[in-house]
Model the fold of this input.
Amino acid sequence: MRIAIVTESFPPDVNGVAHSVVRAAEHLVARGHEPVVIAPAPGGARRHESNRHSYPVVRIPSVPLPRYQGFRLGVPTQAQLTGALLSCAPDIVHLASPFVLGARAATLAARHDLPTVAVYQTDVASYARAYRVGWGEAAVWRRIREIHNSAQRTLAPSTRAAADLVANGVQRIWLWRRGIDGERFQPAKRCAALHRALAPGGELLVGYVGRLAPEKRVDLLEATTRLPGVRVVVVGDGPDRRRLERSLPGAAFLGVQHGEDLARLYASLDVFAHTGPHETFGQTIQEALASGVPVVAPAAGGPVDLVKSGVTGTLVPPGEAGALADAVRVLATDGARRQAYAAAGRAAVIRRSWTAAARELIGHYRAVLRSGASALDLPAAS
Done:
């Protein structure tokens, strides 16, 4: 199949949407398919970073998102987008977290009778609140509903995300969970020297990995940084970094990490703390679990599917810094519990490979192509 993947974000961006598109496209190529990625052009110094990918990447004009200069919105002319989409003669169009660029591609695909699969991945309504961009929640959901209902199938990453979509009138929803690289993220990558360097006093090492942005609520780690015998490390970057460095003076900020460096960091943690209450999935949680690290996360969104409280980690009320710190405190004093959670967490996610995820994705493509014009009559869930 020839697949046009239209994405709101792509490397050098570091986020869940960009990562998922890269891994999906890699596995499509490995199975003999022909993906073409259409993505916003990076800005500034990153504009000249090369695309070292085994598939074509078409960059279209972009502008920075207000109040978040590190994220860019694709804003091509109609002719540019039409040329990019139709020139690859796709059998199917894959819309990755569509909202701005994806919305225009959805309209264009419908106009040219191109079958479309839309992947829901970003809680845009919550982001609109966090960044005060002038969109009300009702307006955001109206736009999401229009985009996704124009597709033959919407793929949701978690049961909570699927429930949100159903509650807001989105139809034809299937679950498609993200994969995990169990070879890269594994307990064997734990590095005693790295642990000593980050926690020289032998402290319990608690880590957060992800974007440093308002909606991620990394500020909720403030109470955890005050726990005796606990050292917090923050991995990632974003518009909130300077504010967080002031509000979390006891934490170590390590910036963005990649590849084997990231894998060693995960495995060298004693506890992984996730703070954001608006995750549709939670890929960093899955990477921590694969690395043999117990997780503390909010009982909201994607983490509810990934963390079994009392088995692989602890779910806490979202937005409550004290509850987060209390959960870390309990784990800090109970090494046997941490060890049990670590083993159970690895076992729970190791079968969710990207190979399996790609196989499921191809199955969704084929189902839509087989359905043809009748795809709009498919059941709402499967």
